[in-house]
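Service request form, structural biology core

Requester: graduate student, group of Dr. S.
Request type: structure prediction, single chain
Budget code: on file
Notes: please return the result as structure tokens.

Sequence provided:
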Amino acid sequence: MTTSGLHFFYFILAAIIILLLLGLSVWCIVNRRLLCATIVTLPRDVTALTRLIKILGHFLYLQRNNLTVGQVFDKNARKDPEKVIIRFENERWTNEQVQILANKIANYFQSQGFKKGDSVALFMENCPEYLCMWLGLSKIGVVGALINCNLRLQSLQHCLEAVNCQAVIYNEELSHALQDVIAIGGLNGTPLYSLCPTENSPSITPSIHLRTELEKVKCSQPEIKEKVGFQDVLFYTYTSGTTGLPKAAVIKHSRYLIAATAMFCLNNFQKDDVIYTTLPLYHGAANVLGGGAALCHGVEIVIRKKFSARNFWKDCIHYNVTVAQYIGEICRYLLSQPPSEHDRNHQVRTMVGNGLRKEIWSEFVGRFNISEIIEVYGATEGNCNMGNIDSKVGAVGFIPSYLNWAIPYWLIKVDEVTGDPIRGKNGKVIVCGPDEPGELIGKIERNHPIRDYLGYADKSSSEGKVLENAFRKGDAYFRSGDILVRDIYGYFYFNDRKGDTFRWKGENVSTAEVESVISSLIGLADVVVYGVEVPGTEGRVGMAAIADPEQSIDFDELANEIFTTLPSYARPVFVRIVSQIQKTGTYKLQKTTYQREGFDVTKTKDKMYILIGKRYAELTQNVYDDIIKRKIKF
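Core staff response, request fulfilled:
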């Protein structure tokens, strides 16, 4: 190459480098917030990536070997048969004891003609046998249906029939509920297996005394007639039924194993941790965190029959708990307890769960000396799962924007009234920007253990949960139904449940936000907020149902505080006083009935109040009539 040619080459090379640097400079200037956010969150992202690689490696091992939950547990049991993995009251259950009972269950039900694909309902309160039951059934491919033990009559009957249960295993404490179902024509001929003590007889006739039958059965591994694998169905778990009848979500071995591993690795749990759960084992959160830690990772778990705010920290001290689980309103219930010497005299390092409101987050951590709060997000049947592993106040998880190609979760704009996705001129959905609320969706990839959406046992119940042709023709996304907000750092914050917002005076009102404010004003009592229709108005007027069994609320003070803390459109115009708020089995507050009854004084004997000016006055029949006649303006 000649000297002039060499000079020209260097000139072009220099020009290219300068242009690249200029382009990079322009990009950095335009995206300086994103660049700064990336740098700030780099330690968080590196930590998460390290743990995700560990999860991926374990997943590939499970998938390659076509393993089931039962096989993973048996491997752990062979390694350390004397390891205690379940504590319940004064009971200690070792790997060997759990394995023996699970094998007996498998052998017994196989001898009774149950086969792969059949379903057996578990209608039981929390106890060690609960985990053994569905584990044993799964070894022969029988699918456990984990029934909410609070259900009664038609709701209970619906859950049993939704998956065509061929049998029911129940605690004696719940026998009356099954008797009520029988009285309305349910369970016709369905075999019932009672777990009553050996010396007692079942209270339902006819019932089979399961403990007595199991004494006759061998405890060796069952002879498998039909192979059970990684992608087979493990059990059904039901949605809470906050609106409508419960739906049976399909959980495969693959989903359970990956979820249990993700909870263990992502949250950096250790083999010598002791995990405390007071949540019902029919619920996915307790079954995956508690059950998964014990069965899949050999961690000791402590099960309590029911949550007790008074005994929570006492139990943690007694059992040397290091990790405790929360959900719904549990943290608020604990804060509502009077200060005690037990508040900080424990070894709990980590609290993990969902639903801790940011308004009480710091207070909770400070009072109870909790080093780490791990807030997690995810629907039982969904594919949008994430976690907040660095205790960011209020966040339910995070995904760095530069990793959306690998973790395809998006917040999209939806119509405020209909809830339908808003599409642009090109027909594609519109992605929300930073700090803009939108519905969370997750890309569906068939046969993927995490991104697949299996839906419900009743396929018609899955309609409306899948969004098709979102970004390109032929794609499919799971609709979470939740409205979240994502900030510039990639953190997600729960905003509200789609449908749990209402529009008033041209503004959208978040029920969760108003509930949180009012609850904090009245000593953390239970509150639900909802919109009600008023004749002659557009949108919905805010109404709050407050649990106040002692009738102790000072309404003048409440009105003053509400005017101080809430904008005009968010202030509840109506207030209903109830003895207690209806709850689901996982302590989530229900508002369906209250919303349906509205402010109609003829539908309830509860006292109701209306905001007139800056004061709450009792809602009498005459005032109600004036509202209906549109004599009172809003």
